Amino acid sequence: MRAVLAVAAVLVLTGTAGADPAALRSVNTFRAENGRTALQYSAMLETAALAHARDMIAEQFFAHTGSDGSGVSDRVTRAGYAWCVVAENIAKGQNDLAEVMAAWAGSEGHRRNMLSREVTEFALVHAAEDTWVMVLARPGC
After folding, report:
1. What is the pLDDT of residue 9?
2. Best exposed site among 36, 45, 74, 140 by fewest CB in 10 Å?
3. With contact defined as beta carbons under 8 Å apart, do 120 and 82 qualify?
């Protein structure tokens, strides 16, 4: 069964934070504090997250639906990731990793995505205009 989880938030892209050890540590510390297993970083998920962040910035919108009508599942598939479960958090305006993690942790839907027992991998990008996109997923089914 393939499941898509989506929650609205705001995020800005200024660079790639997903591969950053601080991002990996932050996400996995949050999960550990809540009794969840650690996630692995995925370059394919980063590709999907970065593409969405760039689209939102270029086209001046903020939404889970891309300017071409795509959803997170479409973007992840385009990046070559064969997913079983996929979720997305977006945010905009937070200046740093601590701020965006706190915002998501305080939002029921975003928190649910980050603590999902169904996901095993993630990527996080911080783009221009403080646009943030996190994609969480589990490959195959």
Report:
1. 34
2. 140
3. no
